[in-house]
Amino acid sequence: MRFHSSAGHCGLLQTLGASKDSFEKAFCGTTNQLRDQCYLETMSSIVRQQPHTIAVTREQEEVMILRMVFLVGCVALAQLTIATDLRGQQQVREVEGIVRGTVARSLMLRVPDQQGHLLGLVETQGTNESTGKQPFLHAASVRIVETWDIVAGSGSDRGFIIFTAGADTLVARYDGTAARKAAGGTEIRGRFTFLRGVGELAGISGDGSYEGLASPQGFDFRWRAAMR
Q1: Across residues 47-70, what is the average pLDDT?
Q2: Which domain holds residue 38?
Q3: What is the crossing angle of helices 58-91 and 32-49, to 10°?
Q4: Which candidate in 122, 173, 204, 216 could, as Cys together with 106 as Cys, close a disulfide (CB 3.0–4.6 Å)?
């Protein structure tokens, strides 16, 4: 039995004697086309299963509605899960680079609580080299404003990293450590979080890590980040 028009659908619904209003209430979150299709196919299935009668009891109708609500809910949940996974996969971008530079200016203050204790405010300037599979801020200028709290060359290193490429700017906050190496120089490492993007970088978020080496002559560190 096939029906090709909305009039045919309504005729079948009236003949079967089931309440379409109850279906509309149950499927209030779906489109009219989906609701009518589910109702028609379900009622047609009952006719095929019971060829000698087309009467539908109230109990049968309630069971039928519950089954269809369950099926539509499962489909909607599966679609939402897939869409969320795909959206997450598309937004995450792995980027990395190497920053090299020198100290532009610094202010170091001695703290007399112990030998070699220094507090410092330092500004460094350098350039970023993109080294990942996906180019990101290659040749961008880098400005770092940082504070040091060190004893005998080792301690905490915190501050902000500012990448600038033309009209685009990306600001990250970092928190790390500095450890003097016996062979000379200071090992630096830590983590950072992107705070704000300007221009084409507006709306960017993410975090990452860095590690490298600093000395009076300059510094370089390698960084990696997951950007969203």
Answers
A1: 63
A2: 6-91
A3: 130
A4: 122
